[in-house]
Specification:
The protein folds into 3 domains: about 1-35 and about 170-205, no CATH class; about 35-165, EIF_2_alpha (Alpha-Beta Plaits), CATH 3.30.70; about 280-380 and about 400-655, no CATH class. The chain is globular. Strand 8 and strand 9 form a beta hairpin. Strands 1, 2, 3, 4 and 5 form a 5-stranded antiparallel beta sheet that branches. It has a two-stranded antiparallel sheet with strand order 6-7. The chain has helices at about 5-10, 15-35, 50-55, 70-80, 85-95, 120-145, 170-210, 235-250, 265-280, 290-315, 320-345, 350-375, 415-435, 440-455, 460-475, 480-500, 505-520, 520-540, 560-595, 600-620, 630-660; strands at about 40-50, 100-105, 110-120, 155-160, 165-170, 255, 390, 400, 405. The chain has about 675 residues and is α+β, with helices and mostly antiparallel strands. Helix 8 (about 235-250) runs parallel beside helix 12, helix 10 (about 290-315) runs antiparallel to helix 11 and helix 12 (about 350-375) packs across helix 14 (about 440-455).
Length: about 675
């Protein structure tokens, strides 16, 4: 279905589009006039070690130099105390009636707390922020007094940033207006498409009875118009547009009214889902056969997300957590769109192969940008500014490890950059070996493999190296001996080349794993502390969690582990759903390899298996699905694997029908025995 067809449907069903669109615009205008502007004031408080502990090494009397470790746990206890209903009741008695939040400071691995109050009266907000700051120190003293902590060992709360002058917060106001308008327009669109689908079914029924309405009778053939609106769209074209936006628009740039999930790529994916629904309801497309498994896994995830959303609605959640849960639903819609478009929307195998080639090529370009970041010691994404978009996060300076700058290209973090490349490398390897593409030449086939695989060590992270090792361990042993030994030689030569070209890089990476195995790595210790801090939240809501998208660093802390984050947000049910996604990807790759009739398809199945296994393992090293580019590539490859499995199944079934079954000899075919005398 082309854009012109969709426009024609909207014009024919104007009695849905026009009234609902006008109602949504009027409702948005009413909200703009009636909802008052909110103001927010913030202050910061840090926890300092007691005087007795500060006298010991390594602080030697300076409590600020040891702001970490057990103080992070103390800060977490204090935050949950301030968020309790008892504290809220006490604050109301002191005049704090507006909404307030307490959480760890963004991007801080220390006991630095951010306190904020949001309301419509600017003077009152400032006064309430001062009261909240003072109450924080009192609560810390009360907690320690209840535990009978000696005076010399009391942890102190010191203000770092005094209550600031309240500033206007129009974002929430615009989000409410935009959500009302979007819901109205989308509802009108879906009703129009549904009405068109019902009309198509009726016309087909009448046609079977021999009746054809006048406006649908045969007409003299006309020359088909040409243009952008009349060009036929398919899922591959839409997913290609998504890839271009996801790879080349930095993931921190979003639409102002939609928050962190409002990236142009995500919005485009949601529009693609509407296109698929319009095409499907209009009878123009049917889901491909044998591709149901990824969509079933997404249904399990959707159920887990919806249950966690209900769990968030039934508890006393803050306004920020409610917004986070809403953003989580939008993110789920994006993931569903990618899986549905890739698995059910692609009807021809050639178009699916085109999509996978484009995925590898665009990923190679992103890797090249990462090379520039590494050698130029900069972040090129920070210099990209697009009118109409704003950064959803504070500016991230170039991250260093050792003497090397960790590249992130157009992603949000070096870990996302390395993880995204690790799940794409298997497909680049498969395309390099694919005999169908031998005409392309060795440079065009092997350049993506060398560029993306070579960018993995540049991130100077354990996540990238683990991902590369998994790809090697899964793919190389399945090759023939000649290819296997050649690959091992190339890998060893590449390691030697890195030692010569970039001195110190291999040693820095080796030290990362050595410190991890010896237990002396500071980042690993910080993550271990966070794991224990998540346990109380899991005890409160073990089955459905606190709500998908609510455990944000602004309110709590970074988990650096997707499974721990899933337990906190969606509970045990959500963890099972996420594991089902990874297992689905692994099963899809193994089934493709088992049913494949050619060596190329078998290697493709192994590539899907390696990619899914990489995602399963490295999700334990960072909160993977919180990063939009990585999550988008994972769900896109999950849907593509389901689509490939459908093609392979249909080809295997067709081959089974073509080969006739061996016939049993009948009695008439047996030789006649003659009695001899």
């Amino acid at each position: 279905m082309s854009l012109g067809d969709i426009w024609a449907i909207m014009c024919r069903r104007w009695y849905f589009m026009v009234p609902l669109t006008l109602l949504s615009l009027l409702a948005g205008g009413y909200l703009y006039r009636t909802v008052p502007v909110s103001y927010q004031s913030q202050s910061s408080v840090t926890l300092l070690d007691s005087t007795a502990v500060a006298e010991l090494a390594p602080t030697f009397g300076n409590p600020i130099s040891n702001a970490g470790g057990s103080l992070v746990v103390t800060a977490d206890v204090l935050i949950r105390t301030l968020q309790s209903s008892e504290s809220a009741k006490e604050l109301r008695s002191r005049g704090v009636t507006d909404r307030y939040t307490v959480g760890f400071a963004p991007a801080a691995d220390s006991p630095l707390l951010t306190l904020s109050v949001t309301g419509t009266d600017r003077a009152k907000v400032l006064e309430e922020t001062t009261t909240l700051t003072e109450f924080t120190g009192e609560q810390l003293k009360a907690l320690q007094a209840a535990s009978k902590v000696p005076t010399g060992y009391l942890v102190q709360a010191a203000p770092v940033v005094l209550p600031q002058t309240p500033v206007s917060q129009p974002k929430a106001r615009y989000q409410n207006i935009a959500s009302v308008v979007i819901v109205g327009v989308v509802s009108a669109f879906l009703l129009s498409i549904l009405a068109e689908g019902v009309a198509v079914v009726r016309r087909r029924g009448r046609a079977r009875d021999g009746y054809v309405p006048r406006r649908h009778r045969a007409k003299p053939p006309e020359r088909a118009p040409r243009g952008l609106l009349t060009r036929r769209l398919d899922a591959t074209t839409i997913l290609t547009g998504y890839l271009a936006l996801a790879f080349f628009v930095p993931s921190n740039l979003t639409l102002p009214a939609l928050g962190g999930v409002g990236t142009p790529a995500n919005v485009f994916a949601l529009l693609g889902l509407l296109w698929y629904l319009a095409t499907w309801l209009g009878g123009r497309i049917r889901p491909a056969e044998g591709t149901r498994l990824p969509r079933v896994a997404m249904c399990l995830l959707a159920v887990a997300v919806l249950l966690s959303y209900v769990a968030d609605a039934t508890r006393e959640s803050t306004h920020e957590e409610v917004l986070g849960a809403d953003r989580g639903l939008i993110g789920l819609g994006v993931w569903v769109a990618l899986v549905v478009l890739a698995s059910a929307g692609i009807q021809e195998r050639g178009r699916l192969e085109t999509l996978m080639r484009r995925l590898v090529v665009l990923g190679t370009v992103v890797a090249l940008i990462g090379y520039y970041d590494f050698f130029a010691a900069t972040n090129i994404a920070d210099s990209i500014h697009i009118p109409g978009l704003q950064s959803s996060t504070a500016g991230i300076s170039a991250m260093d490890r050792g003497s090397f700058t960790r590249p992130r290209s157009t992603t949000a973090h070096p870990l996302e950059f390395g993880g995204m490349l690790a799940i794409l490398v298997p497909f680049a390897v498969h395309q390099a070996f694919d005999p169908v593409r031998r005409h392309a030449g060795a440079l065009r086939r092997w350049a993506p493999v060398a560029i993306m695989a070579g960018a993995l060590p540049l991130t100077v992270s354990r996540t990238s190296i683990i991902g590369a090792l998994i790809v090697i361990l899964v793919m190389v042993p399945r090759w023939k001996p000649q290819r296997r030994w050649a690959a091992i030689a190339i890998i060893m030569g590449s390691v030697a080349g890195f030692k010569v070209i970039i001195p110190g890089l291999i040693g820095t990476i080796t030290n990362l794993f050595a410190s991890f195995l010896s237990g002396s790595d500071s980042s690993t210790q910080a993550r271990t502390v966070k794991y224990s801090a998540i346990v109380p939240y899991l005890d409160e809501h073990p089955w459905f969690g606190r709500g998908f998208g609510t455990f944000t660093p602004d309110l709590y802390f970074f988990t650096d582990n997707q499974y721990m984050l899933t337990l906190a947000e969606m509970g045990i049910v959500g963890l099972v759903a996420v594991l089902a996604l990874f297992i689905t990807g692994i099963h899809t790759g193994g089934t493709i390899r088992r049913l494949a009739r050619t060596d190329s398809d078998r290697e493709l199945g192994q590539a899907f298996l390696a990619s899914a296994l990489v995602a399963l393992v490295i999700s334990a090293t960072f909160d993977a699905l919180s990063f939009p580019m990585y999550a988008g590539m994972f769900f896109l490859t999950l849907g593509a694997g389901g689509s490939y499995l459908g093609f392979v199944r249909r080809e295997a079934a067709a081959a089974a029908v073509e080969v006739p079954a061996p016939r049993k000899p009948s009695e008439a075919q047996l030789p006649e025995l003659v009695e001899s005398r």
